[in-house]
Amino acid sequence: MNTMIDLQRKIVPEIFPILEKRYNILKNIDALGPIGRRNLAIKLSMGERIVRAEVDLLKELGLVEINAVGMKITEEGKELLQDLTEVMYSIDGMDRIEEELQRKLQIKKVIIVPGNVEEDGILKNIGKATAKLIESSITENTKIGITGGNTMAAVAEELTQHTKKQNITVYPARGGLGKQVEIQANTIAAKMASKLNGNYELLHASDTLSSQTMEILLKDKEIKEVIENIKSVDLLIFGIGRADTMANRREFSKEIIEKLEESKAVSEAFGYYFNQHGDIVYETNSMGIKLEDFHKIKEVIGVAGGKDKAEAIGAICSLRKSMILVIDEAAAKELLQLN
Question: What gap in Å lies between CA 218 and CA 201, rounded to an integer?
């Protein structure tokens, strides 16, 4: 495809700005719709008259529909956008960046979502890319583990309900963390199971318990059984967190936070804190997946976005070379700059 695109750049260079403009309009309507023309024009930093003309054309092509609430993309538009995304990857050289980053991190695969997670709609697109990957990975009787957080909630939201795979079970990969119920691993596991027409189990325990309390809970038959099932999942989808962000979510004391800073912790996963080389510098009591389990799971997908997570992503990738990574463009470009 790259050869064809290079030829087209020479013969019809004027087509690419138009293609990119319409791609961005479709992508933003898909992510933000229903949305009005004025808000879309502001979002795209484009004249409202230009947006109106382009949207009218997309409507005539059956890619966008307009009503009193605003504009939204049609099913035909979604299908075209999916194909167009692959074309834009090649035009922007994103596929080359994926290959370069895959070699640098020495992992199985890298999938890059164009944009920056700080922009509206990009988290949804990260969720959509990960959901597509999950749907292509599951088979009959697949056991899935998933962690909590905003990114994982976006993944569950973007799963379709088209799968015909039977006996899928989803487990929370760790205990509850923080106060937002909608981004707890339990909540996300239940939603994902519903989207996949599968089953789920819940882990009724916090991820911030003392050693003594955790020891008592692990004697509970139901909790013990769920933990054993979690450790035997076939597919794990997990978010990659910055060490300082996760320390604040766990409401660590000032002394522990200072210790993490002194040890140059950059990343957190499964209750462990790592420096940029992937060395464990601090460990907490954590329910669910442990580091030794992480290495044994058949397939793992790490998901993250944002330039500020580059060091954290790099540290986690050093732990397992057979993992798949889904990130945004901002994180990808920053990762390439790291030593």
Answer: 16
* pTM score of the predicted model: 0.79
- Give 235's contacts (C-beta < 8 A, 6+ positions apart): 134, 137, 138, 142, 143, 144, 145, 297, 298, 299, 300, 301
DSSP assigned state of 176: B
Lowest mean pLDDT among 40-44, 92-96, 196-200, 252-256: 92-96
Q: Which residues contact 141 (CB under 8 A, 6 or more apart)?
A: 166, 167, 168
- Domains identified in the chain and CATH numbers: 2-92 (1.10.10.10), 94-337 (3.40.50.1360)
pLDDT tens-digit map of 27-84: 899 888 899 999 999 989 899 999 999 999 999 999 999 998 999 999 999 889 878 8
Give per-residue pLDDT as tens, 92-110: 778 889 999 999 999 999 9
256 vs 168, 203, 240, 293, 333, CA distance in Å?
A: 40, 27, 20, 26, 31
Instruction: Please list, in sequence order, all residues whose beta carbon lies within 8 angstroms of the beta carbon of residue 283, skipping any fewer than 6 positions away.
Output: 271, 272, 273
Q: Give one DSSP letter per residue of 276-303, joined into a string.
A: TTS-EEEE---SB--HHHHHHSSEEEEE
Token pair recorded at residue 317: 């990738």
Helix H, strand E, coil C: the string for 205-231 is CECCCCHHHHHHHCCCHHHHHHHHHHC
Q: In what order do the strands lie in the sheet with 267-269?
A: 241-242, 267-269, 272-274, 280-283
Closest by alpha carbon to 29, among 19, 43, 15? 43
- How far apart (Å, rounded) are the C-alpha atoms in residues 313 and 305? 9
Name residues whose C-beta falls within 8 Å of residue 5's C-beta, 6 or more positions apart in sequence: 87, 90, 91
Angle between the 310-317 and 329-337 helix axes, to the nearest 10 degrees? Answer: 70
* Separation in Å, CA 120 to CA 5, 44, 158: 29, 11, 15
**Mean of pLDDT values over 161-185:** 81
Q: Which helix (H) or strand (E) holds 38?
A: helix 37-44
Q: CA 153, CA 184: separation in Å to the nearest integer?
A: 8
- Rounded Cα gap, residues 188 and 200, in angstroms: 10
